[in-house]
Amino acid sequence: MKIAILPGDGIGPEIVAQAVKVLNVLGESFELETAPVGGAGYAAHGHPLPEGTLALAKAADAVLFGAVGDYQYDNLERQFRPEQAILGLRKNLGLFANLRPAILYPELAGASTLKPEVVSGLDILIIRELTGDIYFGQPRGVRECPDGPFKGQREGYDTMRYAEGEIRRIAHVAFQAAQKRDKRLTSVDKANVLETFQFWKDIVTDVHQEYPDVALDHMYVDNAAMQLVRAPKKFDVMVTGNMFGDILSDAAAMLTGSIGMLPSASLDANNKGLYEPSHGSAPDIAGKGIANPLATILSAAMMLRYSLNRAEQAERIETAVKSVLAQGLRTADIHEAGTTLVGTEAMGDAVVKALA
Amino acid sequence: MKIAILPGDGIGPEIVAQAVKVLNVLGESFELETAPVGGAGYAAHGHPLPEGTLALAKAADAVLFGAVGDYQYDNLERQFRPEQAILGLRKNLGLFANLRPAILYPELAGASTLKPEVVSGLDILIIRELTGDIYFGQPRGVRECPDGPFKGQREGYDTMRYAEGEIRRIAHVAFQAAQKRDKRLTSVDKANVLETFQFWKDIVTDVHQEYPDVALDHMYVDNAAMQLVRAPKKFDVMVTGNMFGDILSDAAAMLTGSIGMLPSASLDANNKGLYEPSHGSAPDIAGKGIANPLATILSAAMMLRYSLNRAEQAERIETAVKSVLAQGLRTADIHEAGTTLVGTEAMGDAVVKALA
Ligand SMILES: CC(C)[C@H](C(=O)O)[C@@H](O)C(=O)O
Ligand SMILES: CC(C)[C@H](C(=O)O)[C@@H](O)C(=O)O
Known about the structure:
Chains A, B: Pfam families: Iso_dh. Chain A is α/β, with parallel strands linked by helices.
């Protein structure tokens, strides 16, 4: 089993190092190979997704990804900016299914900006389509406005689109995920305005016939954003497109107040996947040894479960993470009075110790 | 001064009636004329935006709008559904600037699902572009997928677009609104992915040169959704496109926990406007006399300020609303122990009394 390790920028290398430490004590014989990505890829090879890095990711059974982006790359032309690496990996590896759990650990209920009764016990799964929609749709660009009151002026434009097969496959992933949970799926659309999402709604409704044991409902994206704030625990699994999923999954993660705890998986049709923390590269705290490595460690657990067929190892890691929380260990992002403040390495070491 | 009164569906007629009552006691000689819209328009004339209703709205100096939508219209073809009325009014009247204040009244801090310290004193203004973007962009529809791995299948598609002049005019509205407040403007985009919003960002940055007294920052939409949950009070004025604004303004409204209190204004280039509560038609409670009329009454106040040049009357109404809250009067949606539960009419009467 070969795992591509892509630490990236900012706090990426520090947090990935802890996850690697954890992987190394599991007693498995994984082959880990590291390559630069994002700003680090640009610095080393003049491109955020260097050819060698892409080749490694393609050849591997799974990819463990840190985070990309740092100040010095902010003013590069768009095609060279760090985030192009993540878009390129998703597209080239066909990682169409993004799984983003939003879980509030009981010990961290205080970290949320929401009242405890609104979020305690929160456990929702957002499934975001990741290789379609307006993220990749053509044509796009800046052109002369062809008609209407602004005719002749410059205009920026993009194309939103979803083909039937693209909607079907993500719907299957979502219904199957719901079957393993509370059997409730909310499909989020904007069918009242967008043709793309009326079509999305129709296809999801059709796929539902194959999953009569799952209760399906449809919700407009603006209402979904409201309900996530009002009563997030009412949701079980949510499925939506790439653009809406980008917004809603981040909002849902922030409900927990502890985005430093949240992993993510991006899967292809054969359960090969890329695993990364839900948070970003946080260049402001990079190199200080204070970043929370748990989201990355939990991403490694998701990798073991979904791509490497090692569900027991995944559970071992998840149990170890819960036990370090129960011990009261906290990195700065989740620290509160009465708990023990630790750094990135000490947190990684504590998980390793808890695994033993 | 002529005001078009469009009550619409669900609780629309009940809440608009209270706002009309308030307008009638101001001692102004407004001419009010009522017409059906939404489902009521369809029921009366076979179209959600009947010709007579549109003509009235065009002829009037301002439009006071209730809400549209009810169960019996849910399965109509899209072009006949109630929400087409609101899209049609926006487009036909050129109402490109949507102003959505999210204000938390101190008396209602408990209604929020967020912790009091996170939201108390919240006062942000979201400015949403309302006649462009993917809401109206052509082409759109369902077609045969022209290329890629799904070639030949059906696909739904839409066009996102913003012309330079469209971005400039909403940017001017936003900078000028910020000048009247705390002089801070956050422009929300997705420039890292979308050509439309890289262009948006460039134009907003250019317009900023004319407003050196306003501090401008740019934020990605996913991050904006997170920051609204994490630290909403950090914002002053936010400006964004139609689609992102739809999502963010609803999320921001829900932060207050009292969306029944929030008005909105949709303005054209000459400050003619349509005014409506931020909440919907709530058909589940229609006809029960329990809906909160304050958002509609406060929308009438915005109308007096922006379209009818009666700022003092607007303030009188706003002060009257604050005083009924201070008296402890609450409709069911904002009721809590220790306050007095009142119905729609009684709340309207209390505002009228407070005005006297
Ligand atoms: C960096 C950016 C391109 C990316 C996205 O929009 O998908 C990020 O926000 C994410 O959610 O992974
Ligand atoms: C009803 C719908 C078309 C509308 C919109 O999406 O603009 C509504 O959500 C709103 O925000 O006024």
